[in-house]
Design brief:
single chain, 0% strand
Length: 83
């Protein structure tokens, strides 16, 4: 058990409040929970890749970061139109 694995576990626990915010609340709070969950997931993937010594998973985390940002912009645009 190394420090990176412990950090990965803590980040997984940090997804719980993001999930609660994404499933409850107003549409803006749901979007905020979704965006925060995306950030935490990227950090989790990076720390987990370092923990198991597989650096190619970092590329997956970077791709997910770009997709999370773009997806958030699309959802924000739809919320702006509907609300």
């Amino acid at each position: 058990m190394n420090v990176w694995l412990i950090a990965s576990g803590v980040l997984l626990l940090a997804l719980l409040p993001c999930g609660i915010a994404a499933f409850r609340g107003s549409p803006m709070e749901r979007l905020l929970g979704l965006e925060m969950a995306g950030i935490v997931e990227v950090m989790f993937l990076v720390t987990f890749a370092l923990a198991i010594h597989r650096e190619n998973f970092v590329d997956l985390a970077l791709a997910m970061a770009l997709l999370t940002f773009g997806g958030g912009l699309v959802f924000a645009r739809f919320l702006e139109r509907w609300l």
